[in-house]
Structure prediction request, 149 residues.
Amino acid sequence: MRSRSFLLPLLVALLLAMALPAQAEQMQQFGDYQVHYSTLTTDVLAPEIARNYGISRSRSQGMLTLSVLRTRPQAPAEAVPAKVRASAVNQNSQYRSIDLREVRDGPAIYYLGQFRVGHEEQLTFDVEVTPEGEDRPFTVEFTQRFYTR
Prediction:
């Protein structure tokens, strides 16, 4: 049987592979920190991965995943814990708060959150990330259109 530590990197690889080809890498740099983010509908997740991480698989469920890395010259990037807040609003100004949960797997730290989504719905995400030890949050804003059929 596969271990959990094998499944999380597989989940992250899937999330990165699902990013739209026309978009640049979904990452923003803030000084020594990188905030990586991705969204998708959860029906594309393998049932085993969804089950192991308590994710509901559905075309009408979106998922946001985030990670925060600290970068330093001549050193590999390292995952850091952060206080993360996320919300989204659609083109009809309907607001959605997104509850995020932290997932740790060895040195990796991820934040996962689910939200409902409709066909061809465009959401603008507002994410505040405060890495541990920092006083001010970094703000990430991005827009994603979802196709659920």
Observations:
- DSSP finds two helices and ten strands in the chain.
- The beta strands are 27-30, 33-41, 61-72, 75-79, 82-90, 95-98, 101-105, 108-116, 121-131, 138-146.
